[in-house]
Design a protein that fits this description.
Number of strands: 19
Number of helices: 21
Pfam family, one: Thioredox_DsbH
Protein name: Thioredoxin domain-containing protein
Low-confidence stretches: 351-359
CATH architecture of the largest domain: Alpha/alpha barrel
Helix content: 40-55%
Strand content: 5-15%
Largest sheet: 4 strands, mixed
InterPro entries: 6-hairpin_glycosidase_sf, 6hp_glycosidase-like_sf, Ssp411, Ssp411-like_TRX, Thioredoxin-like_sf, Thioredoxin_domain
Shape: globular
CATH class of the largest domain: Mainly Alpha
Radius of gyration: 24 Å
Length: 548
């Protein structure tokens, strides 16, 4: 990202914190993103103002962090959105923080922080609550978890505009998928609202969110991770309904991902596309074709690529779409060959220059998403990736398992990165992938780690919001046992393809099952096991019989 500011930004690392300690001054941490319009506005209007820049340079040590490239810094210092403007003591504790600040607001805050520092020094710093209270409240798992989440969704459901909550309106793919199996009418009305309001009808792909309850105030940036998750969600809606209104948004988004966001130089997906000119989004097709294309951040990140791979493979599983399969295979090959090494997933294909090792060790979010992509690939495409899936799982357990859950990364860095953080969403993603891995490998230990992880947060499960709907999904799969279809053939046979398209999206398909006769399949649900089936029709009958 071009820097129009006059601020002498340092990179995140030991050197900047030591400089602040030696000079006895606070740090100013600017959290920004290439796709963030308000970040660019603050650079142009606030940090480019000469007197403000001089004040920052003279009285603070300023650090600029790209939140996509340093997710652990983002998760500890985010002030509720981007840009985040955070003032730190040299020990990394937080003095104060805000979001966007215009010139007048920044002048006031700079003076206030200087006065605070001169009066109290590091004593004014505080540790955010998630980093003070390390261990989440544990609790037993029961069917109440699923019921409580359905209640949360029902209560938050917007009968008028669709979706959940008042404002802002995010697409919430995990909530869409949870509701799809448990209240399909509510789910489909929300799918309809997301596609009608957030899908870019001209270029394809989903915008990030809308600021207002009626889905107006569109934020036109497009992120790979949310688009990959929405491809999966809409593909699953198509599985349940067979309707084009759910097939087409997935198809249009795949077209967008494999054109605009495809990085042909490295055979992987780029990270995001900036909003561009807001006025251009309201133009008709002819005029929009003449408008400048919004810039793309061509950084390649493991976690978001893994989400895109999973989305494309899910769509391929239900449609046999060759475009989805081909690009998923190419990105998967890059993920496996260039981003995974002996089970350790590198955060980015090209790591940012850093002397502190921030990106050299496994990060839970990348490990979890990669494991999920590898288990999906095993079920749909290629069983040989199962060995790499177990490698990713084993390294994560060895390096990041702590107590009853998983840390977001190593506690060996500067600032508050030396404090343990157990992100709920990444723990749930990993637990869900472990459950699938247990079925695919037959190893119960992965299932037990999944159970232990979910139980570690169980004491607060009745308070989880709709953003954490996947916790309830994974808990239900664990307690009830996922529907499992074992197929004694390679992926791609008629029997295997039929298995992928039967029942609901929470099932697990195991190709090349070694305990089956070649050319046969069977269905399992908990302790119930069907007779073998040799044809797609017979397999469908076995599934229906077991589910009745």
């Amino acid at each position: 990202m071009d820097d129009p500011t006059r601020v002498e930004w340092r990179e995140w690392g030991r050197e900047a914190f030591d400089e602040a300690a030696d000079a006895d001054v606070p740090l100013l941490l600017s959290l920004t993103a290439t796709w963030c319009d308000h970040c660019h506005e603050m650079d142009a209007e606030t940090y480019a103002e000469p007197r403000i820049a001089a004040h920052v340079n003279d009285s603070f040590v300023p650090i600029r962090v790209d939140v996509d490239r340093y997710p652990r810094v983002r998760d500890r210092y985010n002030m509720g959105g981007f840009p985040s403007t955070v003032f730190l003591a040299p020990d990394g504790s937080v003095l104060t923080g805000a979001g966007y600040l215009g010139p007048d607001g920044m002048r006031q805050v700079l003076d206030s922080v200087r006065t605070m520092w001169d009066t109290k020094g590091s004593g004014a710093g505080r540790i955010p609550r998630p980093l003070r209270e390390d261990n989440p409240p544990a609790g037993e798992l029961s069917g109440d978890v699923e019921a409580a989440m359905l209640g949360q969704l029902t209560e938050a459901y917007d009968e008028t505009a669709g979706g959940w909550g008042q404002q802002p309106k995010f697409p919430l793919p995990d909530a869409l998928e949870f509701a799809l199996k448990r209240d399909q009418q509510m789910a489909l009305r929300s799918f309809d609202a997301v596609s009608a309001n957030l899908l870019d009808e001209y270029d394809g792909g989903f915008y990030r969110f809308a600021t207002d309850r009626d889905w107006t105030g569109l934020q036109h940036e497009k992120l790979l991770d949310s688009n990959g998750a929405l491809v999966r969600a809409f593909a699953n809606a198509y599985l349940h309904t067979g309707k084009d209104e759910y097939h087409q948004p997935a198809e249009r988004t795949i077209e967008y991902l494999t054109t605009t966001l495809w990085n042909d130089d490295v055979d992987a997906f780029a990270n995001s596309q900036a909003p561009g000119d807001d006025d251009a989004h309201g133009l008709d097709a002819t005029d929009r074709a003449d408008a400048d294309e919004p810039p793309v951040d061509d950084g390649v990140f493991a976690g978001s690529n893994a989400l895109a791979i999973e989305g494309l493979l899910t769509y391929y599983a239900y449609t046999d779409d060759e475009r989805a399969r081909r690009y998923a295979e190419r990105a998967l090959e890059t993920l496996r060959s260039d981003l995974v090494d002996d089970g350790v997933v590198s955060h980015a294909l090209e790591r940012p220059d850093s002397d502190n090792g921030t990106d050299a060790a496994p990060l839970l979010v990348d490990q979890a998403r990669t494991l999920s992509a590898l288990t999906t690939a095993t079920s749909t495409l290629e069983t040989t990736v199962l060995e790499e899936a177990t490698g990713v799982a084993d390294v994560t357990i060895e390096e990041l398992h702590d107590g009853e859950s998983f840390l977001d990364g190593p506690t060996t860095d500067v600032g508050l990165l030396d404090r343990p953080l157990r992100p709920l969403d990444a723990n749930v993603t990993f637990a869900d992938a472990l459950l699938e891995l247990s079925v695919l490998t037959g190893e119960d230990r992965y299932r037990e780690y999944a159970r232990e992880t979910l139980e570690a947060f169980g004491g607060a499960s009745d308070r989880f919001g709709v953003q954490i709907a996947r916790y309830a999904t994974t808990t239900a799969r664990l307690l009830d046992g996922p529907l499992v279809i074992r197929v004694g053939t390679d992926p791609g046979t008629d029997l295997h393809r039929a298995a992928l398209r039967l029942a609901d999206h929470e099932k697990i398909v195991v190709p090349n099952a070694d305990d089956l006769e070649a050319g046969s399949a069977r269905v399992e649900l908990g302790d119930d096991v069907s007779d073998a089936a040799q044809t797609p029709q017979a397999l469908s009958e076995r599934v229906q019989s077991l589910l009745e």
